[in-house]
Write a structure and sequence with these properties.
Length: about 575
């Protein structure tokens, strides 16, 4: 049976006025190593070091062919000067049934109209990814992100008229514009020379300067950063701000290091990175292992080297030009979009049992905002285990954990051993592996791939109603499939955790204008941005045959692809 439904994607977003020079395109004559050269030089380490990328999951999925009618209404005179219509006719037997509807909503004036018509078997249309799968078989995390995105976009790739263009655009997007790799030498407290590897993956500047955080963690490599940078492209597109996508970091582990060691490493890292970043081309921020302390050290070295005080980093301490509400923004944004989604489905977070994983920045402020709105936060975790609060965490508990993580930099096991909180500690468990933990809403905020198929099954069995991702790609592909089958609420990280990068965009604007906005103003803009993102992805679900996850992927991709076409970067 073919079913037709009208999908509405709203692209009206909170825009920030900044000087036009702030968003100049990068210099493509850069002498840095190009991605193609790097890929060509990359060693093929043989089958022993290559992880075979599973493609069998497409075989069991039905295919969707569709007919689209997309209409772009201009966001403003700076985006386009006239309404542009693109008809995307899919090949299927029968007469096309095109529909168009006027949507009146003062809060969301820019509209894209779709008319999907679904029919069976589509997996063959994804075979165009085979060369990419073989080329980057040694980067399984990156390929996982690509596969997950492609699965959502499969109906668009199957389009008769525009499908081949979108395939070409997707393949271009999967290759970073440039990948920079460098050695970082630093001295430990014993005076010994230490060496780490540093990277900056400048993935896409189609919508603005490369924008994405720096991650310091022993698991970091180029493949991990490519996964994060790839996700960042579409996340930034959903915010509506003029930001491209990128990611950087090092395999340096700040855990267990003294302040002096962290400072010396940050200075050495920035000595190399400073050659490639600029407020108009590439603006890094923090991520795992890079908080206010590290950003302060990095910015200090940048100022020392360049003699400039500009917005080259975001997430900075406020005294150095950082934005109010930036540290809280990602976690708060996760809760704001969760509220909208839960209430749209007739529920409420007030009194709901909410499990949070992680105890870093995102987890901390997701938990705080959940407590603030009356939810029961039943867990927080770190890599050693999980604290469970069966009756809900109190603000006193939260303050103890904040002190442990932000000041003392200690483990949750020590917090539990000292009896400072009311929770029960479960060593070697995440919230998603505790059998008797009843959860209504799950907020994975720790790291990628923390929820596998077995964990998803346990959550569903324990009554979970929704999963809202605070981390980047915290659910594996098998878990995503099980979540889709269960029909529970699922908001992917590229939409749910976009509040952090949106507020980084606000910080860039403040730095460019030499202004500081009050906390209430930043928070109001953050709420409006998360509402706009939710409206975009929710509109795609009308008719019930497209999830919020698929809506986020499709909306973000179409924005980037059309911008590339307009620039003449893909044809």
């Amino acid at each position: 049976m073919r079913s037709s439904y009208l999908v509405l994607i709203y692209v009206s977003l909170v825009m920030v006025k900044t000087p036009s020079a702030f968003f100049l395109p990068p210099d493509f004559s850069s002498s840095t190593t190009s991605t193609n050269a790097a890929a060509g030089a990359a060693s093929r380490t043989g089958s022993a070091n290559k992880e075979k990328i599973r493609r069998a999951h497409y075989d069991s999925r039905g295919s969707e062919k569709l007919e689209h009618c997309i209409k772009f209404k201009p966001l403003s005179s700076t985006r386009t000067t006239a309404t542009e219509e693109i008809n995307l006719d899919l090949e299927w037997k029968g007469t096309a049934n095109k529909k168009e509807e006027t949507v009146k909503n003062d809060d969301r004036p820019a509209v894209i109209l779709f008319d999907y018509i679904h029919t069976p078997s589509i997996h063959a249309s994804l075979s165009f990814l085979d060369p990419l799968r073989e080329k980057y078989a040694h980067q399984p995390t990156f390929l996982q992100a690509v596969e997950e995105m492609a699965e959502s976009l499969a109906p668009i790739f199957a389009n008769k008229e525009k499908g081949e263009f979108y395939k070409r655009a997707f393949l271009v997007i999967t290759e970073p514009e440039r990948s920079i790799s460098f050695r970082v030498n630093w001295t430990d407290d014993q005076g010994r020379l230490q060496t780490n590897r540093g990277w900056r993956v400048e993935f896409s500047s189609v919508l603005g300067p490369y924008k994405g955080g720096l991650r310091f963690h022993p698991t970091v490599d180029e493949g991990v950063l490519k996964f994060l940078g790839f996700e960042q492209i579409f996340k930034n597109a959903l915010t509506g701000l003029q930001m491209g996508g990128g990611k950087g970091g090092s395999d340096f582990d700040p855990k267990g290091k003294s302040d002096g060691e962290v400072r010396r490493f940050c200075e050495a890292y920035m000595t190399e990175l400073s050659r490639y970043i600029h407020p108009q081309t590439d603006v890094p921020a923090g991520d795992i292992g890079v908080g206010g302390r590290e950003l302060g050290f990095l910015y200090g070295q940048y100022k020392r080297l360049t003699k400039r005080s500009d917005g080259v980093l975001t997430g900075k301490p406020i005294i150095l030009g950082g934005s109010e509400c930036r540290i809280e923004a990602t976690g708060y944004g996760v809760v704001y979009i969760a509220q909208l989604a839960v209430e749209k489905n007739g529920g409420t977070l007030q009194g709901a049992r909410c499990a949070v994983s992680g105890s870093g920045n995102v987890a901390q402020y997701t938990a705080e905002k959940l407590i603030d709105i009356g939810a029961k936060v039943v867990s927080m975790s770190d890599s050693d285990g999980t604290l469970v609060f069966q009756n809900g965490m109190t603000m006193e508990d939260w303050n103890v954990i904040i002190d442990a993580k932000q000041v003392k930099r200690t483990r949750l096991s020590n917090v539990a051993a000292d009896g400072l909180v009311n929770g029960v500690y479960h060593p070697k468990h995440s919230p998603w592996t505790i059998d008797d933990l009843k959860v209504e809403y799950a907020f994975p905020c720790a790291t990628q791939n923390e929820i596998d198929g077995q964990s998803a099954e346990l959550l569903i069995r324990n009554g979970v109603k929704g999963i809202i991702e605070g981390a980047n790609l915290p659910t594996k592909i098998d878990a995503q499939r099980r979540i889709r089958e269960s029909k529970i609420l699922y908001i992917p990280g590229k939409a749910a955790n976009a509040g952090g990068v949106a507020t980084s965009g606000f910080e860039m604007a403040q730095n460019a204008q030499r202004l500081n906005w009050e906390s209430d103003e930043v928070n109001a803009k953050l709420k409006a941005t998360m509402k706009s993102i939710y409206n975009q992805i929710d509109s795609v679900t009308e008719g019930g045959e497209c999830t919020l996850e698929q809506g986020a992927n499709r909306a973000g991709f179409l924005i980037v692809a059309e911008a590339m076409k307009t620039l003449g970067w893909v044809w």
